[in-house]
Amino acid sequence: MKKMNLFILCILIPFALMAQDAKMDAFIIDLMSKMTLQEKIGQLNLPTFGDFQTGAVTSSNVSEKIRKGAVGGLFGSSSYDDIRAAQELAVTQSRLKIPLLFGLDVIHGLKTTFPIPLALACSWDMPLIEKTARVAAKEASAVGVNWTFSPMVDIARDPRWGRIAEGSGEDPFLGGLVAEAMVKGYQGSDLSQNNTILSCVKHFALYGAAEAGRDYNTVDMSKVKMYEYYLPPYKAAIKAGAATVMSSFNEVDGVPATGNKWLMTDLLRKDWGFNGFVVTDYTAINEMTQHGSGNLQQVSAQALKAGIDQDMVGEGFLTTLEKSLKEGKVSLSDIELACRRILESKYKLGLFEDPYRYNVKKRADTEILTVENRLAAREAATKSFVLLKNEKQLLPLKKSGSVALVGPLADNLKDPMGTWFVAGDWNKSVTVLKGFENVLGSAVKVNYALGANITEDPMLLAQLDLNHTYKKRDRADLIKEAVDAAMKSDVVVAVLGESEAMSGEAASRTDIGIPENQMELLKALVKTGKPVVLVLMNGRPLTLLWENENVPAILEAWAPGIEAGNAVADVLFGDVNPSGKLTTTFPRNVGQIPLYYNHKNTGRPYDGNLKEKYKSKYLDVVNEPLFAFGYGLSYTTFDYSDVTVSSKNLQGTATLIASVTVKNTGKYAGEEVVQLYLSDPVASVTRSVKDLKGYKKISLKPGESQVVTFTITPETLKFYHSDLSYDWEGGEFIFHIGTSSDKVKSVSVNWEK
User: Fold this and answer.
1) In angstroms, rounded to a whole number, what is the distance separating the alpha carbons of residues 496 and 412?
2) Residue 18 predicted with pLDDT over 70
3) Is the pTM above the cut of 0.90?
4) Per-domain residue ranges for the chain?
5) Which among 440, 417, 444, 365 is positioned nearest to 563, based on CA atoms?
6) What angle do CA 636, 642, 643 make, to 5 degrees?
């Protein structure tokens, strides 16, 4: 009977979906038959809130444009009242009463601010990441936001690029899993439910490969490199059902992405089957002129014909498409297709049925920044931390004695929130000092000192808003106070790193070390002879060569979000055992950049022998990174057995089982991310030295062992060839299993086609 019921469902569900599509088609055909040309073009216009929003105004006469039907959506506000007023205007005073979309950069939470995306990726915990997106969607939808410009899935191999903070790191396999988890978290299983929102995958495409790590800079790469390393996370997001896509600022094959028909139509729609709509990034159409693609009318027509559906802020569509239509530069079907895609998204959200379904006062008052949501943020932060060093098991600290807590990020409300906390209230965040108080009570004497400003670099101070924390005091006096606090304490915890404005969009840096004045503080603290724990808060990998050589314990906490202080205290004092693993490589210095684990080999690979001059190496530093992709310690230790395989000789579509036994050999219960990598030594297209192909996160008690197995099929062996076909070739394959990309056990098998 159960099998029969399942069979009936398999028959009925496609018909039900077809009926829904037919109903939507009929509705939109009828609506568009009533729309004027100007109203159709109006749906392609996405301004900011303008006169609806208190504060900065970047779009003008928005109210009047809404009345005329010249706005398809608004973005940039999390105000319940602003959104409600704008929607009321659209559905009561415009001719056809078409509701608006409301977008926002909900990058790592709305009011409940989670760790930055780069930090979340270091958890290697997809259910957790999906949960953070689900919480974000619930909070955003409660105030009326029904569209988020997230996830950012750009692969980034250059930590100078500030927007590395917004993505998942350098690996396409892991990046694809994170993209899928976030799309599912935002969109749920039914977009018409009022606690789900449209996701927008960005930035399509290749934006993370900006030359010199400089934001908005040009990108140039081969098609094989695109398909193998940079495109997979976008494709994974589309496969997961992402409703919208955002174009990127950079060029792709010499054509700006926003006007690139091969990218937006041939690849995205025809090859990948995407059927949502594409929005530009902020004024990206207008910026095509600076790229050298023509005046505003020319680039607007090019973008529309390439497959762009909605113009963010620039209003090139609004002001030029009617003229381009008369001159034959675009067709009516081009305009109507873009309009239809936007109307379909509104229909799927249920806005035509109830324009206010995402604007419910009761939800806005009761479902935001709840105790449950804050606990989720605290858990996410602890799981994202990466323990980089723990000499002589200095950590976890004892809940007794005294601690000197110093540094510009130790009693700082705003900067631990990280980049892009656009709707978050940093006054409600938990500082590390407060977190110590919450977790420790009176059990530990905490001696606090500021110690240093975040930076005293004149160029940075001229560009960054640091008024919330900057103290106009002599550097030597600040350091003396910190040293005095250290001398009367058993251990020192120094919380150092970047302000929230030092990473993120338009925040590229050539020097990615801890700022010089903070380093002076750290060196003074180490000189006291007291044991020092360095807690880092930052939005990118940093250069930490001196720190690694001189500081006994280093915890990478990234930008932990609203529960920063509680989470840091949880981990430092042993209530939570850190389990994060790096998803980006930490270089020794900026001269090694770009540096990433899945690099190609050379004809003259360096093997560590300094006497061999004519090898691919530097004269002044080793090739290896300071901390490799996948690296991360625990308060306990894990032992790996040799890798065993079900067979060393395989044929065709066989399945290989690779196994390793992992044992907790330490004193604490802990989680370990067991990582599987593949090397393909001989191929028609040269392959990376190794590529991540799987992982499993396990939890073990002291003394406990677990056999971890990976099932491998020919699908795992496939790669892109010069003609962009995707297939595998028979021969030798090496499988590596271990705790990080550079610490693995390996086995070789022969697998013929």
Assistant:
1) 11
2) no
3) yes
4) 375-592, 638-752
5) 417
6) 110
The CA distance from 542 to 551, in Å, is 15
pLDDT at 495 over 70: yes
Strands 198-204, 147-148: pairing is parallel
The one catalytic residue among 105, 154, 281, 680? 281
Here the tokens at position 694 are 């799987």
CATH superfamily, domain 638-752, is: Immunoglobulins (2.60.40.10)
Angle at CA of residue 432, ends 428 and 433, nearest 5°: 95
CB atoms under 10 Å from CB of 454, counted, come to 28
Would residue 338 be called left, alpha or beta, if left means φ above 0 and alpha means ψ between -120 and 50 degrees?
alpha
- H-run or E-run covering 225: helix 223-225
Identify the three-state secondary structure at position 672.
strand
Q: Which fold has domain 375-592?
A: Rossmann fold (3.40.50)
Instruction: Judge whether 281 counts as a catalytic residue.
Output: yes
CA 265 to each of CA 53, 275, 304, 668: distance values in angstroms, whole numbers, following the listed order? 35, 10, 11, 53
Residue 678 near residue 172, CB atoms below 8 Å: no
Q: Which tens digit of pLDDT belongs to each residue from 690-729? A: 999 999 999 999 999 999 999 999 999 999 999 999 999 9
Q: Both tokens of residue 510? A: 């050539």
Following DSSP, what letter does each residue of 248-299 receive, concatenated?
-SSEETTEEGGG-HIIIIIIIIIIT---SEEE-STTHHHHHHHHTS-SHHHH
The mean pLDDT of 275-297, rounded to a whole number, is 97
